[in-house]
Amino acid sequence: MRPPYLILLPALALMTAGCATRQIQNNQGYIADEELANSVQPGVDNKESVQRALGRPTLESRWDPNVWYYVSRNTKQLAFARPVPRDQRVIIVRFAADGSVSNVERRGLEHVANISPNSDKTPTLGREATLLEDLFGNIGTVGAAPGGGGPQ
Fold it and tell me: Which GO terms describe its cellular component (predicted)?
């Protein structure tokens, strides 16, 4: 007869093998080629040449169609945890009214604002009802006069 720990030891080893820490890396958005991004020059390029060099922008400004954004982001993640940004690059190309490039900016992860919400629950006015009050709270009010309370 084998001791029970000899049987449990292989089972424990198999269970912990699935818990190995492996990071998942993900690239999102525009994959920037630094040489092409550096080739965009204010006063020299226009919308067509920028689109040929960098491709279509990730997004255009909603308020000004003469501002293009190229956004790329690298994240890491452990198993089922939320992804954590490792690197983020934003190339902002601004155009003059005639369509020529007026300015090229680069921004990184240091410009990202970290917003932490107040809580997971939205504050509301009024009282908080329990589950039983929610289930049985309307008993006796069916057919009652407007304003509730039933007959007096």
Answer: Bam protein complex
